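> example.struct
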């Protein structure tokens, strides 16, 4: 039996941006609930650069900052619209969903929201 993981499918440029918004929002929520502080836009852009480098991708600093700002908007919206317990659960589900083998309806709906935010930003 072959136990090797299949090679992940190539992700589109748009898909990469959507995934970064989602992952950064998950990190922001986790940091907020664990430490009571929000990541700055620059911290988010730096974190995005780290993730991109692991997959041998790059985005210019201004784009990483833009995606960081969108993730901040989403994270703060989630935090303000949920109880602390529900927000912590949502952050946990989002972090778990960074593993492609984890299925979460919450994460799927938030990924759609990330797509909407990116589309709105690009329409402006």
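> example.seq
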């Amino acid at each position: 039996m072959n136990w090797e993981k299949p090679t992940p499918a190539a992700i589109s440029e748009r898909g990469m941006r959507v995934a970064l918004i989602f992952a950064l929002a998950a990190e922001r929520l986790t940091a907020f609930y664990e430490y009571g502080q929000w990541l700055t836009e620059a911290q988010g852009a730096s974190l995005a650069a780290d993730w991109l480098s692991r997959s041998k991708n790059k985005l210019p600093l201004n784009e990483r900052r833009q995606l960081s700002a969108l993730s901040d908007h989403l994270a703060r919206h989630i935090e303000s619209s949920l109880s602390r317990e529900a927000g912590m659960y949502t952050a946990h589900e989002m972090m778990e969903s960074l593993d492609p083998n984890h299925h979460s309806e919450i994460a799927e709906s938030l990924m759609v929201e990330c797509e909407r935010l990116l589309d709105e930003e690009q329409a402006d």
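> remarks
The chain has one domain: 13-123.
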